[in-house]
Design a protein that fits this description.
With 803 residues, chain A is of the alpha+beta class. Helices cover 49% and strands 18% of the residues of chain A. In chain A, strands 15, 16, 17, 18, 19, 20 and 21 form a 7-stranded mixed β-sheet that branches. In chain A, strands 4-5-10-7-9-8 form a 6-stranded mixed β-barrel. A 4-stranded antiparallel β-sheet of chain A has the order 14-22-13-23. In chain A, 42% of the residues are buried. By secondary structure, chain B is of the alpha/beta class. Chain B has one domain: 3-Layer(aba) Sandwich (Rossmann fold), CATH 3.40.50. In chain B, strand 1 and strand 2 form a beta hairpin. In chain B, helix 3 packs across helix 4 and helix 3 packs parallel to helix 5. Classes of the chains: A alpha+beta (803), B alpha/beta (221).
Chain lengths: 803, 221
């Protein structure tokens, strides 16, 4: 029986090739998009959940309730971990986690640069990073033990067996030998914790001097609780711990007038479940909100829905033309169930083909997708049972709805009438029309959102930041050269290059350079009895003139004052924060000295436009290491200047690893997330409108087929081509207008919410909606007209004969 | 076999009630060959559809093989219908997407008959109607007379006790029409199949043993 259904299905599909093609292509493309988006979303949502102990693993953070705000920080002092372990039997495992960043490794005369993390021995026991060789219980027993990732093992040792070999590693300017005690699998791509090598925490820079220092926070801490202990219960227990070990901080907070939390506490030690790590805004890694993952799923669902609507509408339309067949089958004794099954069979075949096409396309597009949208991505996700269930369910639902629903309606109609082909289709237009409205609401939404995202992105790119970003080249110095020395050498060498205007140094880059790192340095201090917080920036001579900042008051740093390390220059926001009438009178107790304010600069955007401009203090103090050199070049022929500077830099530091870049490139990189969203939105919108119009096209074809006779009669009676085009189009145009009316407020609300993420943002103006609506309408109109005009200019004699 | 009592069928158009059938009382016995005649709009097809359970009257009762049709459950009625009634149409109504063989086979599919058995029955039927050579053709490849032959074969495949024909020769030329009528007579006499046909042609009506004349929804005489 089923074979028979399938056979009929194939023949039917073959006979109506154009409809089949529209259905399969539309659904296929939709499946492709949905598969890729769902994979991305699942990858995001399952971050860190490969850990077997994921339900009992947490990262610690400290929550400080200040008078005006609540601050969170995930870095911890060194002695905290042993103290916690001693006090709480609920803690099964606990490990400090210190990042060293790029370190130089020597083996057999070759040098490598690898990310080294320092942890306690528990680290390997609590997280699921299995060892390929070595024993995870003992691998970090000795201070000189080091566990390396499979990738690093291959890079360093090639085919040699690594365990037991000795590596010479430079950590914090000190070369020491380490013994490889194990090789671990590379961390999955959706792991928040990344590493090339892991060694004991005792090797962390400044471990010994800080071993009993509670006031200096340097590293993260992860814990694994007993399975019976809840997060909330354990956080409650930690209150007493804070009271015991953080007495001084608590007193200071009380003096400052900190506002206690719901439990009456000023300082809390709290936990983030490991599965929330990726999304948590608490960490300085800057959480990506789960919202974006759900947004991807939503857009995927939108596209699939739009394609399904096409499918349902086309099947519905075609079923009515197949009324006679259904009637005839009933005459031959078919039950309702059998007719439903037959039609479901047809839609099942279409869905199946679409799914296959979708999977194939997704497979082919994957490399392109990875380079343009989302890199960190493994196809293992496809094996996740959740995803498979979601897809199977969606697949069945679509095929049942598309095939079953029209057949269900048809099979309920009076048999003697359907056999004669006498059926009224009027009622069912309501369903078709509502589905089309929903379809165009979704397309409209995507188009409007796309234009707003694009506008905001453009705004951020072009907004003046208060400094010159076009002419400045940023050079990441790296660890393999003395930083102060590098700057000095560069100053001397670049003086000979004619295009170079000035050279300076700093410890924090502007934007995000090719080295990919960002950092943030905030210092809190007491000023006239109140706590003031400021961003802290190490600069060098000529910083202000190189960047083109405007000095409002006072003077720039100058070599005339020797090292000039006794003064700072602040921005307007900082001047407002300290609240002096003449900020140049202020003396700040900072960094262990009294620092005189020497100048005030106009506010500039030293952070991304997501954030308001906050207080900033600049100094030239050698205890803060330089990390970047800024070189200002003449505006003419920038690529040539870039080459020249690069050449000089490589003579100064032949081992330089990171590439140099212009600051405007760096600032663009800050908006990568937004750029990604806009790309996804644009693709989503294009697909949505394309698929919607494919459906519209097919529906118009159907309607014209059904109204051929009417069109013929009207023409005989004297209707013009325009009359007829209007007659057919006006219903559809009406639907699209309704859809756009619905989409507008939703889009406005959603985009307004999204824009709240940015301290500096555009205003949504009405013309965006008009433009987006106009585009949607125009595309739809063109689609409709192609067909109607053809029908309208056809010879009426022919169309009348066909009845 | 068939007892119709006080059958009325009407449709409401605005405030007017138009009667398609008025007070039809009719008994047809097993083995009869009945022709129904009457001008256009006299209710011939409506009557046939009611007998064939494709349509229901507005009022009245219908007994088929001793079963009160309108008191039966949908499922039982459908079963009764499937096993006992075959239909032939003026416009053949073959399914365009199916071959001759498959068209004839379809009613058996809906009765869940096993594949091997189906093959035997269909082969038999093709043989009997001399259309073995055409079994893999599609309806559009056949002449009208051949299509109607397939239509009759399809109607008979499940061995119904009652064959209903709605102007079976209406779209055929006289020679083809004669062949179909001869076939009907043969069926009636040799297999004892009860036949009710609607026709416009006096000549074809003569093939029946009894002629019922309808006028404005009433049986004349």
């Amino acid at each position: 029986m089923f074979k028979n259904y399938l056979k009929i299905a194939f023949r039917n599909l073959w006979k109506h090739k154009s409809f089949t093609l529209i259905n399969i292509t539309g659904m296929g493309i939709a499946f492709t998009a949905t598969i890729l988006l769902a994979m991305t979303a699942m990858n995001e949502l399952t971050f860190d959940s490969f850990n077997k102990n994921k339900n009992s693993l947490y990262q610690l953070y400290i929550e400080t309730h200040r008078p005006n705000n609540t601050e969170t920080n995930s870095t911890m002092p060194v002695p905290l971990t042993p103290a916690l372990k001693a006090e709480f039997p609920d803690i099964v495992h606990i490990s400090r986690y210190g990042s060293i960043g790029g370190s130089t490794i020597r083996y057999n005369g070759k040098e490598f640069s690898k990310l080294i993390r320092t942890t306690d021995a528990d680290f390997l026991r609590m997280f699921t990073y299995p060892l390929i060789s070595g024993n995870k219980e003992t691998a970090l027993n000795n201070k000189s033990d080091i566990v390396i990732s499979q990738k690093s093992a291959e890079a360093i040792f090639g085919k040699e067996y690594p365990v037991g070999k000795t590596l010479n590693i430079k950590i914090h300017d000190e070369w020491k030998d380490y013994t490889v005690s194990g090789v671990m699998e590379d961390a999955p791509l959706n792991s928040s914790i990344t590493f090339d090598m892991i060694t004991r925490f005792e090797n962390f820079p400044n471990y010994e001097p800080y071993a009993d220092n509670w006031s200096s926070s340097t590293h993260d801490v992860y814990i694994q609780l007993n399975t019976g202990v809840t997060q909330a219960a354990f956080e409650k227990k930690l209150i007493n711990f804070i009271h015991k070990y953080y007495k001084d901080d608590l007193e200071q907070l009380k003096k400052d007038g900190g506002r206690p939390d719901a439990d009456g506490e000023l300082l809390r030690l709290k936990l983030i479940p490991i599965t929330d790590l990726h999304f948590s805004p608490i960490l300085n890694t800057g959480g990506v909100s789960r919202f974006y993952a759900y947004l991807l799923l939503l857009i995927g669902a939108f596209i699939l829905f739009i394609a399904s609507v096409n499918f349902v509408n086309l099947s519905l339309g075609r079923t009515f033309t197949r009324a006679r067949e259904i009637g005839m089958r009933k005459v031959m004794g078919a039950g309702r169930r059998q007719i439903l099954l037959q039609f479901w069979g047809e839609s099942f075949v279409i869905c199946l083909f679409s799914l296959l096409m979708g999977m194939l396309l997704a497979r082919l597009l994957l490399p392109y997708y990875k380079t343009n949208f989302y890199q960190a991505f493994s196809t293992d996700i496809l094996r996740s049972p959740q995803l498979i269930i979601i897809f199977a369910a969606g697949f069945l639902l679509v095929s049942i709805l598309a095939g079953g629903y029209p057949a269900w309606i048809m099979s309920a109609l009076n048999t003697s009438q359907t056999v004669k082909g006498k059926i009224t289709t009027g009622k069912n237009h309501r369903l078709r029309n509502s589905l089309m409205v929903v379809q165009f609401v979704l397309s409209g939404l995507l188009i409007i959102c796309t234009s707003i995202v694009w506008q905001q992105l453009n705004y951020m790119r072009t907004k003046p930041l208060g400094y010159n970003k076009e002419q400045i080249i940023s050079i990441p110095i790296g660890n393999n050269i003395g930083q102060e020395r590098a700057l000095e050498l560069m100053r001397v060498q670049l003086a000979k290059v004619p295009n170079v205007l000035s050279v300076t140094g700093t410890d924090i880059n502007l934007g995000r350079g090719r080295d990919g790192s960002t950092s943030n340095s905030v210092i809190g201090f007491q000023y006239k009895g109140k706590t003031v917080k400021t961003n802290w920036l190490r600069v060098d001579y000529d910083y202000i003139s190189t960047l083109g900042l405007t000095l409002l008051q006072g003077r720039d740093f100058s070599r005339d004052f020797g090292t000039d390390s006794g003064v700072v220059i602040i921005n307007e926001a900082m001047a407002a924060e300290i609240g002096e009438k003449n900020p140049l009178d202020a003396n700040l107790d900072l960094d262990g000295s009294h620092l005189q304010v020497a100048g005030v600069v106009k506010n500039y955007h030293f952070k991304s436009l997501h954030k308001e401009i906050t207080p900033l203090t600049m100094c030239i103090r050698k205890n803060w290491t330089l990390s970047y050199i800024f070189v200002k070049v003449k505006p003419e022929n920038l690529p040539a200047s870039m080459d020249a500077v690069n050449k000089v830099w490589h003579t100064v530091n032949p081992k330089a690893e990171s590439q140099i870049s212009f600051l405007d490139e760096n600032t663009e990189k800050q908006y990568r997330k937004e750029e990604r969203i806009s790309k996804i939105f644009i693709s989503g919108a294009v697909l949505a409108i394309l698929i919607s119009c494919m459906g519209l096209f097919a529906i118009v074809v159907l309607v014209i087929m059904q109204r051929t006779k009417e069109i013929g009669i009207r023409k005989v009676l004297g209707a013009s081509v325009l009359n007829i085009t209007t007659l057919i189009s006006k219903d559809f145009i009406g639907l699209i207008l309704i859809a756009l009316t619905i989409a507008t407020p939703i889009a406005w609300w959603a985009m307004n919410k999204w824009l709240q993420d940015f301290a500096y943002r555009i205003h949504i103006s009405a013309w965006i909606f008009l433009l987006a609506g106009g585009i949607a309408l125009l595309i739809a109109l063109v689609t409709i007209c192609i067909q109607t005009i053809r029908a309208a200019i056809a010879n009426p004699v022919k169309s009348l004969k066909s009845e | 076999m068939i007892q119709l009592e006080k059958i009325f069928k009407w449709v409401n158009a605005g405030n007017n009630r138009t009667f398609l059938l008025k007070d039809i009382n009719l008994t047809i016995n097993e083995g009869e060959f009945v022709s129904v005649m009457g001008p256009s709009g006299s209710g011939k097809s409506t009557l046939l559809n009611i007998i064939g359970m494709l349509d229901e009257p507005s009022e009245g009762s219908y007994h088929f093989l001793g079963n009160d049709v309108y008191k039966m459950k949908e499922k039982q009625r459908s079963q009764l219908y499937k096993e006992n009634i075959g239909f032939v149409f003026q416009a053949y109504h073959l399914i365009d997407e199916l071959t001759v063989y498959e068209n004839i086979e379809t009613p058996l599919l809906y009765q869940n008959i096993k594949s091997s058995e189906r093959q035997a029955i269909v082969a038999d039927m093709l043989d009997r109607f001399n259309i073995v050579g055409k079994k893999d053709l599609f309806p559009s490849q056949l002449s009208g007379g051949q299509q109607q032959l397939v239509g009759v074969a399809r109607a008979l495949i499940a061995k119904p006790k009652l064959l209903l024909a709605d102007e079976p020769t209406g779209n055929l030329n006289s020679k083809q029409g004669e062949e179909i009528m001869e076939l009907f007579r043969q069926l009636n006499q040799e297999s004892g199949t009860t036949i009710i046909q609607v026709t416009h042609s006096e000549k074809n009506a003569e093939y029946g043993q009894r002629i019922i004349h309808l006028l404005d929804g009433r049986i004349e005489k």
